[in-house]
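Task: sequence in, structure out. Protein: AAA family ATPase.
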Amino acid sequence: MQHAVGSELPPPHGPGRTAWAGQAPEATGQVPLPPGGPVHAPGVPLAQGGVHHPAPPAPVPPDPRTATLAVLLIGPAGAGKTSVAKYWAGHRRVPTAHVSLDDVREWVRAGFADPQSGWNEQSETQYRLARRTCGFAARNFLANGISCVIDDAVFPDRPVVGLGGWKRHVGPGLLPVVLLPGLEVVLERNAQRSGNRRLTDEEVARIHGRMAGWYGSGLPIIDNSQLDVPATARLLDDVLARSMAAPPQW
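Result:
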């Protein structure tokens, strides 16, 4: 079943799912009374009229390790977004896809607009097309019960083409998380890169400075300066559990 871009995400699968129209009464907690009326537990006083109404059970908190999720991992170059996203997707208990914006952007071979050569209308167009393609892929995965994690360097000072764009492409259930290690760590990791993914130190510092605007935004931020990839992925699960219980306003 396909879902049009912009429509709501499909309901999560597994523990923590909510009741939807058309489900059996047992799925909604409205269990039919047994023949002969309600059963009265000894020692529990009856309500007025002789009918006892037990309190509804406490809701089970969703488990990010088994729920169907759409996650947007944000961070500067060298933050470890791609490595963490790939590891997290590969070690989940349920089917999960990793959608890399840079990989999709580099599908363009002839005519590739490398932003390191200078930002222009063509590089902006290719980034925009890559984001829309990633969003479409994410929605298809979700519609078929497969979680997805997307990594992108989204800037807080460009809300329309940043978070706002991803929300339009994927849906309102998208969970954004920011990876923001210290500048020294980012510079060291960037120095280990090669090809067009390695940036100048000046560019890395500029991007890192813009990413600092996420502090105070309400989005969860992980400083993974002293964490390896597996430890960061475990912390990501904890952060997602809190975001699922109380979604950030963005």
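The helical segments are 25-28, 81-90, 101-105, 121-143, 163-170, 183-191, 201-211, 229-245.
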